[in-house]
Amino acid sequence: MGESNIGSSRKSNHFCYHEAYHSCYIYRKFSKKELVKPAQTRFGYMFIMLSNLIDEKVYNGLRNMIVSIEYTMKKVSKTKKAEHVSSIILSPFFWRSCREIVHICAPILKILRLADREGSTMGLIYEMMD
Asked: Which domain of life is it from (predicted)?
């Protein structure tokens, strides 16, 4: 579940930013919140990308963009890759499992961020467990 969702979310982000760059302009008409680009140098970058995707503004913006007349009239929307990305974005299963992944991983990443700090953090971690 997690691996296929992460791959699907990477495909949608990559499609919007690189292959159909003008679709970002259409997306911005429906949402003021930016899509987070995956960057392997960031701590927990896939979690950050997934949690950004399930944000209500991004979720609604992507779905509204995919069904908009302006997007469907573009030549790029008729490619196989665009149809695949559209099916991902319109899939309720994809969004439900993204929410589940973020819900499960959030406490783990919180602990990892605490442990990654400078200095003694074991006391903070023990406090969080209570």
From this structure: Eukaryota
